[in-house]
Task: inverse folding
């Protein structure tokens, strides 16, 4: 027997389905607002964000992993690229408050349909994640970068990228990571200085 939804429930659902997604320009406006109103998040710079978005498209990435969601700023940039490749982002953060803020930002930009957010310690979550991820972006607790690298390298396919933030601004906190990406036989690394913090871009051979 066919069941009909009451009109009071049906009309809001129809309105939600018809509501257009925010345009790229509107998303960029939201990102600019986040930088003004949500301070102290150690986000990537706008140029670094755009670089990461372009990298997603360059790699034709379908699955991206982010370690360190914060307020969702870099995740939105990554998702902008994924909206064009038809991919999805999995982002991890251990802080419930930051994650809640990120979820609101993902919804406000209309990119929540391509983003999965998980709450928990990345060092505990990573061993159970199935690969591959064409791009891994690390922007979390700096002394643990080497551990993140060790856990995510098997998840990256040949030609995939493991990127990390703050390699120029906080090198003293990640010396073991910086040495590892310099000498690791499976990696070819370049340092990209499109923002003040610096990005390492390590291609898996």
Result:
């Amino acid at each position: 027997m066919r069941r009909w939804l009451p009109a009071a429930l049906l009309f809001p659902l129809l309105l939600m389905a018809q509501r257009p997604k925010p345009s790229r320009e509107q998303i960029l406006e939201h990102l600019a607002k986040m930088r003004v109103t949500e301070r102290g998040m150690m986000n990537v710079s706008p140029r670094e964000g755009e670089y990461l978005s372009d990298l997603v498209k360059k790699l034709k990435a379908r699955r991206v992993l982010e370690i360190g969601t914060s307020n969702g700023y870099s995740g939105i940039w990554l998702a902008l690229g994924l909206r064009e490749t038809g991919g999805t982002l999995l982002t991890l953060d251990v802080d419930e408050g930051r994650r809640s803020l990120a979820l609101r930002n993902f919804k406000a930009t209309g990119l929540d349909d391509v983003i999965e957010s998980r709450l928990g310690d990345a060092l505990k979550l990573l061993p159970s994640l199935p690969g591959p991820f064409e791009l891994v972006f690390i922007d979390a607790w700096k002394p643990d970068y080497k551990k993140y690298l060790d856990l995510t390298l098997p998840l990256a396919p040949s030609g995939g990228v493991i990127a990390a933030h703050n390699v120029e601004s906080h090198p003293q906190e990640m010396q073991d990571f910086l040495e590892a990406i310099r000498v690791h036989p499976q990696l070819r690394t370049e340092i990209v200085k499109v923002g003040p913090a610096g990005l390492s871009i390590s291609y898996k051979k």
Notes: The chain has a mean pLDDT of 92. Residues 23-204 form a domain with the Rossmann fold fold (CATH 3.40.50.150).
